Amino acid sequence: MTNSNNSSVDIAGAAIPTGLFIDGTWRPGENDATFDVISPASGAFVASVADASVSDALDALGSADRAQASWGRTSGRERAEILRAAFDLIRQNRDVIAAVTTAEMGRPIEQSLGEVDYGGEFFRWFSEQAAHLSGDFGSSPRGDFDILTTKVPVGPSLLITPWNFPLAMGTRKIGAALAAGCTVVIKPAAQTPLTMALLVRLLAEAGVPAGVVNFVPTSDSAPQSEALMADSRLRKVSFTGSTGVGIRLLQQAAPNVLRSSMELGGNGPFLVFDDANLDAALDGAMLAKFRNGGQSCVAANRFIVQRAVADEFIARLVERTQALAVGDGATPGMDVGPLIDARQLARVQNLVDDAIAQGATVLTGGKSVPGNGHFFEPTVLVDVPPHADIANEEIFGPVAVVSVVDSDDEAIAAANDTPYGLAAFLYSDDVTRAFNATSRIEAGMIGVNRGLVSEVGAPFGGVKASGLGREGGKLGIEEYLETKYIALARLER
Ligand code: NAD
């Protein structure tokens, strides 16, 4: 993998653009500035990517603003056809997209293929919604005039995405925004800009008009988003990332009263009741904990297990964890890839060391793997004191923390004992008991006897410090629409 020229890099036989995309044209960053993408699996150089300056980003916003009026006026059917074409292109380029994601984040290739399938579906889903936008019609209660509502696009939107699902976190926003008739400026995570660059190329090939999709990777996010959000041409920000950055962006959104969607961090509880099917609970636990190496906002952070089944659950969890294959995800058959960078690796190690210092017992793992990659051993910890950081912060790594409880009430209280409320998981074979528990668990999404909740047709999002708004499902498009109400006088009274 080398830069074949200034503007693209060859990965898996495909030319992946390395420039900015503004007003329908690929171009270098101001002063030809670039930053490097490094493989977290090996430390090897992957590509040099254009580094957008603040003035590049403002150019991108200008382009989105100029394109907004005509894009907002296109028919729903026209937008649907373009999104559908983009979905088809994603399917045709499935292997290349997955290879690019694995090159820049080290994740097992099979899981990258899974993300392509999941991520691509958002374009199909929103293409189906784009053609069916509708308002409402009614009368005032006094009957003296009519009430018409229509849906109109919010306007130019800034989409900021994280590195952990570099395709799907983009398509979930871009699909909804384009279907609604909004133009966009996309800012990918600096660790994984190439997946998004390829997606932007495919969107252009699918027929997205110039200016509708603009792409500004940068190594310095804060000044870029500050300048964009202070500019009154921007009408919306949609962010997926950590709660700390989300809070900062909400503060920056306030002066221009920007519509804001926030998909933030989690601290997912995974409850195993004493009547759970343990085979299913173990399968769900492995998926919820170790998919993407634990680097998922909906990952299980805290396993809360009832005493009657705790010994067996823990013993089998340790056995399954020890069987995981850890290595560069470009090699088929791996289960767990590296953490994204040295900072994350140090964070996870510190959380584990701190828990051990406070009395936690390591049943397996517990250390980083020597070498150039940022690998951490799949780990199971028990006896973690409730106040330890690892029980309260999002781990974002392959570390399972298991605690034992004596009742449903204790399990639910522990589940809710966090400022976060994104995903929760619950295993019980008693539907009534499980359903009662779901009504008391504070989370935007609850998997009952399932270790995975992400689904194109379902509303994804959190409560409490985990965010504002929903993505995907029927609600996702609403984040990009305003309701306009027209009071229509009757000619004859
Ligand atoms: P992050 O907050 O560090 O970065 C997310 C994005 O914001 C990146 O593009 C980054 O470059 C950008 N960014 C960083 N600082 C910024 C600033 N000051 N101003 C503007 N942009 C800035 O998060 P991350 O480490 O990339 O991703 C992991 C986090 O994302 C976790 O907390 C995870 O839970 C969360 N996440 C949430 C969801 C969800 O849907 N709720 C999905 C995936 C990830």
From TrEMBL:
GO molecular function, one term: succinate-semialdehyde dehydrogenase (NAD+) activity
InterPro entries with a match to the protein in the record: Ald_DH/histidinol_DH, Ald_DH_C, Ald_DH_CS_CYS, Ald_DH_N, Aldehyde_DH_dom, Aldehyde_DH_Superfamily
Key word Cell division present: no
Record Gene3D superfamilies: Aldehyde Dehydrogenase, Chain A, domain 1, Aldehyde Dehydrogenase, Chain A, domain 2
Any Pfam family: Aldedh
One GO term (biological process): gamma-aminobutyric acid catabolic process
Keywords: Oxidoreductase
Domain Aldehyde dehydrogenase: 26-486
Family: Belongs to the aldehyde dehydrogenase family.
Designated name of the protein: Succinate semialdehyde dehydrogenase
Organism in which the protein naturally occurs: Mycetocola miduiensis
